[in-house]
Amino acid sequence: MTLHDLFPKMFHRRLVLLLAVGLGVGFTLAAQLTHLTVLKADTYRANAESRLSDRDFLPTYRGSILDRNGTPLALDEECYDIAVSYVVISGSWALKEAGYAARDAAGPRWGELGPEERVERISEHLPEYEAQVDQMWREIRTSGGLTEQELTQRLDDITTFVERTTDAVQTRWREEYYRKHGYPRPGETDTFDPHEVREQKDSYVILPRVSEDVAFYFKRRAEELPGLSVQDSWRRVYPWSTATVAIDLSSLPRELRGEGEQIIRIEGAADHMIGDVRERLYQEDLESRPFFKSDGSIDLKGYRIGDSIGRRGLERVFEDHLRGSRGMINARLDTGEEARTPRAPGEVLYLTIDIRLQARVQALLSPQLGLARVQQWQAGWTREGEPNKPKLPLGTPLFGSAVVLDIDTGEILAMVSTPTIAEGSRMSDAMRSTVAPFVNRPIETPYPPGSIIKPLVLAGATAEGVHDVQEGIVCTGHFFEDRGSARCWIYRDAYNFATHSPESTPVDAESAIAKSCNIYFYTLADKLGMARLVKWYRRFGLGRIPDVGLIQTTTNEDGDLIHFGETAGDLPTEAHIARLRRDGRLRFATVIAGIGQGPITWSPLQAANAYATLARGGIFRRPELTQNDSRGDVSESRTDLKLKPHVVSRILEGLRRSVEEPSGTGHHITYGGAGGDTEPIINAEGVTVWAKTGTAQAPAYAIDDDGDDEADRAITGLDHAWFVGLVGDGEAGQARPRFAIAVVLEYGGSGGRTAGPIANQIIRALKAEGYL
Amino acid sequence: MSSGVAATATQDAGVTRRALRARAITPQHVVLLNPAWICVAGALLLSILGVIMIGTTEPGLAKRQLVFMLIGLLAGGMVALPHYERSRRFAYPLLLLVTMLLVFLLIPGVPEFLVRPRNGARRWINLGSSSLQLQPSELAKIAFVIALAAYLRYRENYRRLLGLLVPFVLTFIPMGLILVEPDLGTAMLFLPTLFAMLVAAGARLKHLVLIAALGLGSAPLMYPLLQNHQKDRIQAVFSQWTGDVSRADDIAFQGDRALTLIGAGGLAGVGREHARDLIVHNALPEEHNDMIFAVICNRWGLLGGLMTLGLYLMFCIGGILTAGLCREPFGRLIAVGIVALLFAQMTINIGMTVGLTPITGMTLPFVSYGGSSLVANWLMAGLLLNIALRRPRMMTRDAFEFTEPEER
User: Collapsing DSSP states into helix, strand and coil, what is residue A138?
Assistant: First the structure.
């Protein structure tokens, strides 16, 4: 039976056709409806339900960094910022609003207007909105006490920043786009259509850190001022970023000596250690711990755009410790219920540093004072009284570092690196490339030790039984038959080829240290052999990263993980020793390694800690920089090197004589030629000092004259000036070493005459701060 | 309107008038048991559904809608009483009047107290207060159906391609005027209605298919002529089809929220209280109006949605049966026109709500909140009832019977 038979009338058949079409449409609708309500119900229900709850996050702040006395070194300070949206700053807001107004006024006829007419209509409305913006700038100027020029400058800075960033980001996007879709051929239209960069939508702080009054004024006005917002904020503040220190001039070497005090203004105290935070997060930061996780949950301690993150130093290493976690309010909009997760501010980080001592030491190392500059007394005079020509011009600033360690606890009281990051940021490119200010010298720079390593050689040789401490060694001036190499420092023309054994009297242990006799230690090193020498150096901490909490990691261009922030220094490796043996140079290398030359380097912190180990009678321990340390019990890091007590006391006696006896290398400075005035290097009263000077052959001083990051010339034959010592209160005999001090001045020449006076002043600083 | 027709009719003297009046409500000329009651029942249930659903978020408006519904019932009843054939005389004058009203809306200088644009659209004539406004396009739909039925009823020329010209011109005049108001949704109802009526009237299907194909084929060419917000809505529905959620908070907002709430309703819905919370906090726009179908599906789920579609099916079947049983061409075409009009409106509204078509301003007949639209819908239901109530006159030839080989 056909349709025709069933519906003989055409009209009815047509109705059936219409009904069929209608049913088809109806089924389509029903099918889509079923699709939505059955297959996709879960997704849609979750979406719909999610809009019933409202989340609000509470801001949090970062933990403070405090010194050993609770003085804040870094803290978050609560403040208000007055910010304005970039769309207003750039003028696009006024244009957009004028556009809306023109469109509203024109109504449906807008569509019929040509482009010129539209522009004309918009410009009619523009002054109204520009006036609003101008009114806002006026109010901001009045409240912030800015001149028109200052405000313009700020806005220009922001505009420049945003334009530059936008350009950079969009260029990157363009590259990516072309790489994916192919570069446009000549004549082809460019299909790349960049969307807005986040920086173009952000608000920018115009008046930072305003008072509450100003903040409330703008909060009231915010609705009428386009794009203006008052932001609660915290700002990382470094109270010791500038400080002044008064230095008593009366105890300085005579060329600097004077009445009263000199006020030294220092910048960036401890900034290498403390580090700083970055206000801008990179994509990697966001991905390292996202606030909104991919599974939809929230990590309140995660990162969001606008957060800050530790960039350098402890701020970076202790990021997780210092970083706070946000609070959250979860409100059910339908029931009004509220669930709160309180915010958890970051934890406090306590350092072992005494910032006042640190500031004093930094002032002493500041070229402003003059100790850290090339001076005639450092270069000395000929016997005839002619001034020696210094290898660097007189007055050249010297940079370096100093470490003060508490011997009993292993705590670092001060660790100064000059120039500081703050000073380095203001340097010319040439200067910056030459002196590398961002390196934290006392822990990051490996220096050749020179003579300061000698006490360690004695400790090792006696402990290994290759040398009897009672036994003296005759200083012949030169160790090998060949008089040119491996000489004693005194065996040269300037000293008439003298030796430490004028009548072939053997040099004893104390004198060997006090006078820094090379022959004595060549002999010991020769007896020990390279392997045992290196073993003992290692026991005193050479070749090992101290691990005080400044180790940072980064990835290089090849994607390898690189550690930086602390150096282990260098020691000859087994392969190195084998190669020396093969080349027949092992004996010579071993001998000079006994006076700290060859492939041996360490940092001032390692040097201070090695001397502290001697002072503790051979107990090695890890130095400490932070107090809340989760790296394990300190006692675990203690090792007894099993030194003989009588050897240790003879080493200390030698160190004491070095500064207390006229023949000691650390005893005095002579002004003028033979028979000229002398002045003791150490002049602090009521203390005993055990110290060793070191004048260590330095690598060539590479100087970049034009700031292109390439060395343009190099000065060779320079020495690093070392002065490492121990200090305790009381006269000799009653005193016990309490603090270890290491000072190094790069390319400073004589350890005693350049680094010595600074060490002397550090001892005085310890007294001034009540440690002695 | 029915009173207007009656008033004009009384001015007409003569035998015809008396004869017509005599046929008006005499019981022997009335078929009480007729399929239009199915339509009335469907419309009544849909209206009640509307009142209930409007009450989900707007109980105050639900009460007003109930009042509109009673007015609508009354108006529909009044339309059902005088013989529908009377309206044939006034078919063209009525279309002219409505056309003039539509033109009036668009005259630039008309003061704002008479024509106040809303959202840039000039659709309403103020009749004294904000709640009493005439939307001429609602009248235009009915006038168009009657006029087209009057034109087609005894003709055959539309079986030639050129003969289709007049019906299309008749359609394009009100449709074009409504399009420039702008009211794309209402304008879009005219073409399906025209096609349905032409199909019913026996126009050659190959002509209609050809015209439809040409029209659909050239539709993309019309795209540049669209206004920006209309382009946005087309892009929005594309983004929904492709599952692109990036536009869900701007141009696709309305559609996205409608889909979300429909989906969230699941099989049986979430109930009144929760539906209200979800609708309010998902910020569904026009929830008591254009988007009411999303409310139905959220509150009563798939079952509620299918029930609604079922009620429309019921209405349409009632209307088609009415047309089928009617022996007289004018009545047949009016019945088909009304069913097509309401069905097209339902399809466009539900289609956009479930994300199949772009969003246009369009109410769901009988269900959406709004006095003019509800009363207009009930007038159409009344007209259907009117047609079904009449017993056929003795002398009517079978209309729209052509031999069409292609139908075999």
Answer: helix
- DSSP strand pairing (A72-85 vs A639-640): unpaired
Best to test chain B binding among A3, A12, A14, A50 (most B CBs inside 10 Å): A14
CA-nearest residue to A21 within chain B is B196
Helices A586-593 and A574-582: crossing angle in degrees, nearest 10, is: 130
CA–CA distance, B302 with B17 (Å, rounded to integer): 52
User: Looking up tokens 């009449």, which residue turns up?
Assistant: B390
Contacts with A612 (C-beta within 8 Å, 6 or more apart), sequence order = A405, A407, A410, A623, A726, A740
Q: How far is CA A323 from CA A238, A308, A318, A348, in A?
A: 16, 9, 8, 10
Higher pLDDT, A646 or B185: A646
Distance from CA of A38 to the nearest CA of B (A): 6
The more confidently predicted of residues A8 and A763 is: A763
Report pLDDT digits (tens) over A644-667.
Answer: 999 999 999 999 999 999 999 999
Strand runs labelled E in A565-667? 619-620, 639-640
Query: Hey, what are B100's tokens?
Result: 């003039």
- Residue whose pair of structure tokens reads 């087309």 in the numeric block: B234
Q: What is d(CA A361, CA A741) in angstroms, rounded to the nearest whole number?
A: 11
Residues of A within 8 A of B282 (CB-CB) are: 48, 51
Residue B272: exposure state from Cβ atoms within 10 A (0-12, 13-18, ≥19): middle
- The DSSP symbol for A695 reads E
Task: Give the DSSP H/E element, type plus range, for residue A377.
Answer: helix A376-379
Nearest CA in chain A to B293: A33
DSSP structure class, residue B139 = H
Q: What is the pTM of this model?
A: 0.67
Question: Which residues are CB-contacts of A8 (< 8 A; sequence separation ≥ 6)?
Answer: none
Q: Cβ–Cβ of A33/B302 closer than 8 Å?
A: yes
Q: Which two tokens stand for residue A203?
A: 């608000």
Cβ separation B336–A15 shorter than 8 A: yes
3-state secondary structure of A665: coil
ipTM of the shown complex? 0.88
Residues B295 and B288: beta-carbon distance below 8 Å: yes
| SS3 label, residue B399 | coil
* pLDDT 10s digits, B237-278: 776 776 655 555 556 677 888 888 999 999 998 988 889 988
Phi, psi for residue B244 in degrees, rounded to 5: -85, 115
Asked if B307 reaches chain A (Cβ–Cβ under 8 Å), the answer is: no
Q: Which residues in B lie closer than 8 A to residue A40 (C-beta atoms)?
A: 263
Quote the CA–CA distance of B119 and B276 in Å, as a whole number: 27
Partner-chain contact B356 A32, CB within 8 Å: yes
Give the span between the Cα atoms of A19 and B318, in whole angstroms: 11
Which residues are A228's β-sheet partners?
A84
Q: Tokens for A162, please give them.
A: 């945003």
Tokens 């279309």 correspond to what residue? B95
Q: Which residues of A are less than 8 Å from B407 in CB distance?
A: 4, 10, 13
| Best CA proximity match to A364, nearest among A770, A718, A754 | A754
Secondary structure E strands in A129-251: 203-210, 228-237, 242-248
- Which residues on chain B are in Cβ contact (under 8 Å) with A41? 263-267
Closest CA to A593 of A500, A485, A483, A457: A457
CA R_g for chain A: 37
Are A249 and A258 in contact, with CB atoms under 8 Å apart? yes
Minimum Cα–Cα distance from A36: chain B residue: B263
Q: How far apart are CA A692 and CA B293, in angstroms?
A: 92
Query: Which residues in chain B (277-296) have CB-CB distances under 8 A to chain A?
Result: 277-278, 281-283
Separation in Å, CA of A85 to nearest CA in chain B: 21
Chain A residue whose CA is closest to B260 = A44
Nearest CA in chain A to B335: A15
Q: Answer for the pair A644, A462: CB distance below 8 angstroms, yes or no.
A: yes
